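BUG: 3D viewer hangs when loading the predicted structure for this chain

Environment: internal workstation, default settings.
Expected: structure renders.
Actual: progress bar stalls at 90%.

Input used:
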Amino acid sequence: MKSHALAAACSAVILLSGCAAKKEEAAPPAEPPKPAVDVAAEEQAIRTRSGEWMNYMNAQDAASLAGIYAPDAMSVYDGNVTKGGDAIQSGIASELAANPKAVFSWTSDAVHVAESGDLAYETGSISVDLDGADGKKPATSGAFVTVWQKVDGSWRVVADAGTENAKKPK
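Structure tokens produced before the viewer hung:
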């Protein structure tokens, strides 16, 4: 009888050991790796988007600017702070209406895209001639930094800041 009890106990231990080992083997599979972001392609997409933005400004197309700014965007230029994509678009529309000959030009010096591929910043220089090339007032120049975020698959501005270069004393 003792031998039957010992055999039953050994069988139970072996059976339970086998079940425990199977549970360890049945662990869920690891998540597949996320696809790598093509940072160079995203950088080019931002440069293209920035060029579209400049074209909208020079075409006085304030309606198209709605697609450039994120709803919660912020703009800071020479001490003027505007919050919200709609408010920024409205302010630009007023500026364009007041300066119908205005010419805007900017150059992207650098675009840095996060490895995640959903956030980037652009730096560069800007020139604004409010009365156009044939106007009497000289163009002003300055620098800018723009923060871009991928929103619903499209690059949109979430923060834009710039300033005029300091005027040299005469």
